[in-house]
Queue: 2 jobs
Job 1
Amino acid sequence: MSVILILLIASISVAAFFLVAFLWSVRSGQYDDEISPPLRMLHDNPISQNIDSTNTTTTLKNIN
Amino acid sequence: MSNFKHMSNSFVAQKSTAFQCFHCGEDCNEKPVIVQEKSFCCEGCKMVYEILNQSGMCDYYTISKNPGTNQSIKIRADKFAFLDDKKIQASLLSFTNESETHINFYLPQMHCSSCLWLLENLHRLNKYVISSKVNFERKEVDIVFDHQSISMHQLADLLASIGYEPYISFNDLKKNRPSVNASKIYKLGVAGFCFANIMLLSFPEYLGIDSHEAYLQGAFRYLNILLSLPVFFYSASEFYISAWKSLKHGFLNIDAPIVLAVAVAFGRSLYEVFSGTGAGYFDSMSGIVFFMLVGRVLQDKTYQELSFERDYKAYFPIAVMRIVEGNPVSVTLPEIKLNDTLLIHNQELIPADGILTMGKALIDYSFVTGESIPVEKQMGEIIYAGGKQISGNIEMLVVKEVAQSYLTKLWNRAELQTETVLEERSFVHLLSKYFTAILFTIAGLAALYWYMHDSSRIWQVVTAVLIVACPCALLLSNAFTNGNILRRLGRNQFYLRNAQTIEEIATINYIVFDKTGTLTTGRYQDIVYEGVPIDLIIIKKIAALAAQSTHPMSKAIVEWSGEIQPKHTGIKSFQELPGKGIEGIVDGDSIVMGSAIFVTKKTEGTTLQSAVYVAVNNQVLGRFGFRNHYRPQIPALLQQLQKLGYPICVLSGDNAGEQQNLEKILGIGAPIYFNQKPEDKLEAIKKIQLSGKKVMMIGDGLNDAGALKQADVGIAISENSSHFTPASDVIMEASVLPKLYQYIRLCKANKQLVMTAFMVSILYNVVGISFAVQGNLSPMVAAILMPASSLSILLVSFGASNFLSWKMGFK
C-alpha cells in the first residue's frame, strides 16, 4: 500500500506540470487579445497557382 | 415671422444617387469617381483602392464589405515630418538594433477583420516591413521594420496612405503604458492547484484510514503542509497587503477577517499536525484563499481599448512646425519656447497661447470651452491653446509655453490632482467594521462559556469560530454580481472604470448636463429661415454667394439651399469681412449676408440666437436662425429624470441663445447657466455638493474635465471611441444616452441583490458558528461548508443578476 506514495508524487508532479504550463501561457500574453486570433485563423495565405496545377496533372497521368 | 423652410442635412439626400463607395460605403452623391466599374465617393478612397490593387491585396474588400473609412479629407504631406527627429524616434520605438526597429502605433480606425488582415499583410505593400502584429482590443499594431531602408516617417505615411493614419499624441512621448498586471491570475492558479490537491489528500483522513497504515496518515498530513505553503505565503499575500494598507489608515477593512481566518487556520493546523492531535484545516484555509481570489479576479474587469485617465497630453499632438529663418522645422511640444513663431496648418490644434501674426484665424473652441460658433481672430489678437484652426494656415508668435498656457494651467489645478484617498468606500466595507466586532464578541462569549464548563476546549472553540466565520460568501457574491453588472453595462456601451462606480451611481440624487456635444450634436444642423418668403432664383443666388465663403455658417446655408454645386459665374465684387459678413453682386442683384448690425445697420434687440441676416438690393428679407440640434429623445430623457425626482441642471459654455428651448423642456426657473468657463462649471458642482447632494455630471469636452472630476460620478459622452474623452468614471456612447435612467436603475438593483445574498450568507455563517461554539467543528464539516456556501452563492448571484438585467431589457 505504500506504493500509493509513489503514485501520489507522480500525480502531483503531473498536476504541477500543468500549473507551470498555465502560468507560462498567461505570462506569454496570449490572453491579452482575444479578438484577433479567431479572425486571424480565417485568413487565407496566398499559395502560388503554378505548383497546384502541375501536381494535379502528374497524378492524373499516374492513374492512366 | 413665418418659417419658410425647416430643413436638416437629410434634405440633401434626395439628390444623391444610389451609388455606394466601394471603399468606405458612404454615398457617392452626384459625382462618383469610377475606376474599373467600381464607384468611389472621392479621390482619396479611389487612391487607397489603387494602392491595394497594385499589390494584389484586394482581398481587403472581400473579407468585409466596405471596410474602409472615408478619405475625403486629405492628410497633409508633411504631417509626420516630426518622426524624422531622432529624439522623438527614440522615445516612440520599443526596440532597435542594427537591422530592425520595433514600433507600436495606435490606429483608432481599426474596426473589422479586413483591417486586421490588411495590417498583418503590410509586408506585402512594402518589402522593408518585416512583420506586423495587431492587438485588436487595444487597436494597436506592432511593426518590425528595417530602418535602414524605410524610415519611421515613411512608415507612418504608408499607413496613412491606406487609410490608417496613426494617432500619435503628446502622451506617447512619455511612454507611460502600464503593463497588464497578471499577478492575481498567477496567485489564483497556484491557489487552485494547491486547493484541489489538498482536498484530494484530505479524503483518506475523512473517510477513515486503517490503523495499520497510520504512517500514511502522517505522510498525507505533511504533504498537505507542503502544499499549503505556497497558498499561505504567495496567494494570500493579496489580502495581507490590502489589510495592511487599510490598517495603516487606521481602520480594518473587509480583508481583515479573511486574513484572520487564514492565519488562525494555518496556525492551528500546523499545531495539530506537529503535535499529532489532528489533521488540520488546510483545505478550508486554501479554499478560503482560492474563492476569495476568484471573486477578486471576477471583479477586475478592465477595458483595454478605453482609457479613463486621459488628460490634456492625450489631446495635443506630439509636434508642430516652428519657423526658423524662414523655414518650417518640426519641433516637439515641450521644446516650444517663448517668442517662437509657429506655423499652424488647417485642421491643426493650437498648442500654446500666442499672438496671431499671419493668416486668417477661425478657431473652433467647442471642445475646449463649449462655444458652438468658431471664433474669428484678427492679426495681433491673442489666440488660446486647445482650439482647432479651421480656415487655412496661420502663423503665430508664442506668448506662453505649452505648460503655462491657460488650458494646461486649468488641468494642473490642485483640485484635479486629488486622488481618491480611499478606494474602498463601498457599503460592504462599512459592514466589515461591524463584522469584525461581532466576530470577536461571539468568540469572546464562547470562550467565556467554555472557560466555565471545560476550559481545555477554549482554544479549540475560539479558533474554530474564527476560521468558520469568514465573510466569504458575502464578498464573493458582491464581487461576482459587480463583475457581472460591469460586463452587462459594457455590452450596452456604458463602460465603468471599476466596480466601486456602480455604487456611486446608485446613490446620486442630482444630475448636471453639459450642453454642447452632450445634449446637442454637431453645431448647426437645424437652419430655420424666418422672413419674407423668397423664391428659388433668389435662393440660388444666396447659395452662390455663400459658396464663396469658407465660414461654416456659409457652408451650412449652401447645404440648406439644396445646391450641392452652386454656380460660380456672374459674381462680382465679392467681399468677406471677418466678424461681419459677406457681400457681392450676383447676376445684377446686390446681396449682403451677415450679422444683424452689418446687414440691417441698426442694433437689433437682444437676439442672442446665432443668426445670419440677408438683404437683397438693400432690402432686408429675413434671417437664417441656427438652432442647436438636440440628440433624439433627449427631451424625453430629461423630463423622465425630472419626474423620477432627479433635479436637473444644465451648464453650458455657449451663449444663452438656447435658453428658451431648454426652458421649454425643463420648465422655467430650472437651473440653466450659460457662458460657463471650465472653472465656473467646477464651482457650480462644488456648490451643489455642499448642499448635501451627490452629483452626477455628464459632459464631453475639455471644458467639462474639471467638473467631471469634481462630481461624484463623471460620465464622458463619446461619439466615437477613437476620439479623445476627458478623464471620467464612466465612458458612454452618445447613441445610448437616452437610456441613462435604465443604467441607473440597474446599478440600484445591484445593491439590493448584494443585500439579499448577504442575508443568505449569514445563514451559512450561523450554521457554521453553531458547530464551532459547540466545539464540534471537525475539519470535514468545515471543508464541506466552505465550498458549498461559496458555490451556491455564486450560482444564485449569477442567476439573479442575469435575470435582473434581462428583465430590465439589457442585451
Job 2
Amino acid sequence: MRTPCKSVASLKEAIAVGGIVPRGSLVGAQHRVGLGDFLQGSAIAADVETLRGRSVLIASADPFLTALALIELDGAARRMILFPPDLALEHLPYVMRYAEVDAVVSDGSFLTGASLGTATHSICRPTLVAAKRLHGERLATEWILLTSGTTGRPKMVLHTLASLAGAIDASPSPTPVIWGTFYDIRRYGGLQIFLRAVLTHSSLVMAGPGEPAAGYLQRAGEAGITHISGTPSHWRRALMCPEAECIAPRYVRLSGEIADQAILNSLRSFYPNAAISHAFATTEAGVAFDVRDELSGFPVGTLADAPGVEMKVVDGTLRIRSGRTAKCYLGENPPVLKDAEGFVDTGDALDLRDGRYYFQGRRDGVINVGGLKIHPEEVEAVINRHPRVRLALVKSKKNPITGSLVVADVLLEDFSVPDAEDAGELQRTLKQFCRESLAPHKVPTAIRFVPSLAFSASGKLVRSHG
Amino acid sequence: MSVRSDVLDQFKLVAQEQDKQLGSLGDDVPLLDLGLDSLGFAIVVSRLEAVLGVDPFSDDEGVSFPVNLGEFVGFYENAVQKRR
C-alpha cells in the first residue's frame, strides 16, 4: 500500500513513526549515526530549543553534519537554509539578509572569518549526546535550497517537507534498502535520496567532502548499498573506476542531466541485475517522472500519466504543476516561480520524434556541466571586462563526459580575427582572466575569435540554443 | 603522429591548463589516478574529437568504459581504425 508522505509532519516524527526503533543509519566518510539514535540523542545538544522558530543557515564542509542538523531542526526551526559547499562565502551576507537568517549551525570551522552579524552560532557534532525529546509546538519548517543564478548570486528556492517528499513512497520496503548517492545532499537530487532514506527508515551512505569516486564506491560496496543515484556525468566517471565493480546495486537512478542512450546502455551491461531508471526533476519544479524503459527521452504518454503531476509543453518547453513544486524564490527582486495557473516553466526544450520526447537543452541557454548549471550571461560579463574584448557570446558544446562544456565566441575590440599564433596566446590570456574570477567549470574550454556576432531586431545578442 | 602520442599530448596540455599535476603516464595507471578531474577528462575528450575526428564515448550502443591509460589509448586507436 502506498503511504503518502504528505501526512508526515517532520523528519523526527517520521523516524518515531510506528513506535519501533528504525533500522536505518546515516553513514558518512568518518561517522555513522543510527536513525533510532535521534529518539534519545541530539547533535546540537542544548541548542535545539534555542533555535525553535528561528531562520537557521546550515553550513558545513561534510554533508553528514548537514544531514544531522536537518533532522534536528525540521519541525522546530521556522526556516532551514542549506548552504552548498561550493558557494563562495562572499554570497553569505546576501543569503543571510534575504533569507532573514538569525541563527547559524555549522561544523565550527566552515564559516571561519565570515561575519555572521547578530545571528547566533551553534555547533553541530558528528556524534549524538543524550538529550530529552522535547514536545514543543511543531512548525511547518521552510527548506531553502540554493541554485545558481545569472549573476553568480545564488537563487534561493523555498520548499517544505511536503513538497520535497511528494514523490516518495514511504511504505517500508520488504527487503532492507541501503541508499547511496554521488550527489551532495544539499543539492535537490541528493536531498531527494536523503529524504527517501530517512522517511522509509533505510540507510544512506554519503560521500565525504572531496572524497574521490573510487573511495566512495569502495565504501558503498563494503556497506552493501542496494540503491544508488547520480547524474549521467557521475556515472560516466564511476564507470571509469575499477571500484565500480565493488557495488552490485539492485536499482540505479540517473537524474539532473539528460541521460543519453550511451550511458543507459553502458550501465545496463555493467550492472546486469539492476533496474535502471532516469528521472526528471528540477529544484523549482520538483520530481516530475521516472523513465524505466531504459531508453533516452520519454514516451509522449508520460505527460498525461505521471501520478500527481500535471505537465504540458508550451512554446517548446516543459511546464509542470504539482504539489512538489517549490513555493517561491527569496531574494532581492525575486523572479516569479510559477505562472498564474501554478505551472513552473522548467525552461527545458523538448523535441518530439516518433512518439517520444527528447530533451534539447535549455531555452534560456543555461549550460549544464556535469549537473552544475551555468548562466552564459555570468561568463560573458567576465570576458567582456577584458580590455581587448568588445563582446562575447557564451554557449554550450555537447560532451560525452560532462554532458556539456562551456565555449565562447569572442568579438575583439578592433574587430580583428587574429592569426593562429596570436589567437593561441590571446585564448590563453582570456582563459586565465576568466579563471581569476570564475569557478573552473565556468571557464570556457574553447574560445573562437569571430569577425561579428548576430543581433536581433530588438538589439539583443542572438542565441541559438538546443 | 600516432594516436597514442596525440592522446598523451592532450593529457599533458589540459593538465597544464588546469594547473593539475599529472602523475606517471604508464599504461596500467588507473585513469582517475592521473591527476585530472571530470572537467579535465571532458576537455581531453573534446580536444581529441577535434584532433582525431572520433568520439568513441558517444557510441549509442553503449561502451565499456576504459579504466586505465592503456585502455583509454586502445579505445581511441580502435575508434580511429573503425573509421578508416
